């Protein structure tokens, strides 16, 4: 497929499972046509939006705005889910939605995919921001279930992160309540806090509208974890192939912090990719296609024939 922007509007399929006895909404977009499968990708969302706006963004006349459409068109089976506390999943006040909770939810979804839909073998996993921590924690706990892990806008210790430094000033506020309000002003702040101008003009408002259609508040667990409980992932326990993606202007993840994490990864099949002109929300940026291409290359990379 020569046109990088080529993608079909793929029909999605809704599923449901449970994690810790609570509902988890699961969304699938299968590969298009009779293509040979290139693998199965599980996408894991971040702190401030549910899965469908993040990974299946609907923009009129631009089906490639959905990363799930784009990969399904290229032979991948694609899945995402709403962590408990978000979107169409269980949102009771008893759910703080910590990083550990998200890893539990990812395992529940992986089990559902295997047991109910016959998806055997390890998955390819992509997570963004706190979703990268959720995905990494899932992979750390279940290394046999993940073949390749792509971690975008992740943070390890929090060292050198201006966004987390500012957020920590409200730590008592986050700890004082289970959820925080969500509104359009806050959503725009995600796009503008690091480097205004990077967001795609056609993607921003549809993304905000689709996030707010599902949620008017968000759980505080990942904010508390990222301000007070880092590090949450041990890179030495990530034995699968790993890609670290960092936007040039991302204020969450400092280069120094991520390079130290990268150096500790034990598998030589790893890469560190810096994405020019991108801040934090990769798939909603003007340069989103760079992220797609990095992921496509990583997920289609042949396994090494020789290991020393």
From TrEMBL:
<dbReference type="InterPro" id="IPR022742">
    <property type="entry name" value="Hydrolase_4"/>
</dbReference>
<protein>
    <submittedName>
        <fullName>Lysophospholipase</fullName>
    </submittedName>
</protein>
<dbReference type="Pfam" id="PF12146">
    <property type="entry name" value="Hydrolase_4"/>
</dbReference>
<dbReference type="InterPro" id="IPR029058">
    <property type="entry name" value="AB_hydrolase_fold"/>
</dbReference>
<feature type="domain" description="Serine aminopeptidase S33">
    <location>
        <begin position="62"/>
        <end position="166"/>
    </location>
</feature>
<dbReference type="InterPro" id="IPR050471">
    <property type="entry name" value="AB_hydrolase"/>
</dbReference>
